[in-house]
Amino acid sequence: MTGRISERIIVKSSLEYLLFASVARILQLLPLGMVRGMARLTGQAVYHVLPVRKKLTLLQLRRAFPELPDAEIRGIARGSYVNLITTIFEMMWTPRLDEDFLPRVLRIHNLDVVEHARRRGSGVIMMSGHFGNWEWLSTGASRLMGFNVTVVVHPIHNPAVDTLVEGWRQSMGNRVVDMGLSVREIIRALRNREVVAMLADQSGPSGSLYVRFFGHYAATYEGPATFALRTGAPVVMSFAVRAEDGNYDVLQEEIPTSDLRGLTDENLRELTRRHVRALEGMIRRYPEQWLWQHKRWKHAPHAESVLVEDPDD
């Protein structure tokens, strides 16, 4: 019985890889405009015909924006599906994303923010969320800014697909490390004055800090703030915002940390609160560009939870 189950898993994994790689290869033969058009149609089809996590998406949007009419909520949800599929299709198109094409699709703004942070000599933590095209943000934006980054990722469950995607992510000189094995790598990179890129917008474990996100407590990863306070590395929020022409404006903002010295419980909570608030502000401006399909409020606070309040509360 165990052997049959293993065979089924292997067959399923192989079919997943073949499908994924085949779609990627087809998309790489097409011009980017056509790929984006197909992504829009596919995203709308997934929303209307194959409503994967649609109920969860609408539930979370109504929780985040209780003041909005239902028609607007559904419009944001549909846009979020289109954004997700567009990001996946564009990621598959990455082998066509050469250095001549990069400046056309990624327009860097606020470069002085990053340069100022790097000059301080403590490394830099560049944070973002599953927003806009987070894949091209890490793959191409750093290349345009003149440096490589260590990218912290969750491995994809299918090893063959993971290897393929990892190759795309490293195609422009970046290095990818597994989030579960990355603590030493992150500390080493920061102490070597390098840049570390990470996403920290998904649900943390139940024992995490609980920070208000759109007015509701959400379990939040403490890692980025811990690394920043432990090493003195500044934290720069970076977002690839999809513009009307389909390309991206890369916006950057440093999180203030000059009043937070050392890794203390109070500083850890405050820095975590600050970067969550910066992410929320960007999502409020462009709600359809965030990944609402993830269960952000997966865990509810319990008796031993640490609740992080905003200063005015």
Per DSSP E runs of 2 or more residues, the count of β-strands stands at 10
Give the helices and strands as they follow along the chain: HHHHHEHEHEHEHEEEHEEHE
Radius of gyration from the CA trace? 20 Å
Let me know the largest β-sheet: 7 strands, mixed
Strand composition percent: 15-25%
Uncertain runs are none
Shape summary: globular
Describe the protein in words.
The model has no long low-confidence stretch (mean pLDDT 93). The strands form two sheets. Strands 1-9-8-2-5-3-4 form a seven-stranded mixed β-sheet, sandwiched between helices. The protein has one domain (2-308). It has helices at residues 2-28, 32-48, 54-64, 70-92, 102-105, 111-119, 134-145, 159-169, 183-191, 223-231, 265-285, and strands spanning 106-108, 124-128, 149-153, 175-178, 195-199, 209-213, 216-220, 235-242, 248-255, 306-308. It is α/β, with parallel strands linked by helices and 313 residues long. It is globular and about 50 Å long. The chain contains eleven helices and ten strands.
List keywords for this structure.
313 residues, 16% strand, alpha/beta, seven-stranded mixed β-sheet, globular, three-stranded mixed β-sheet
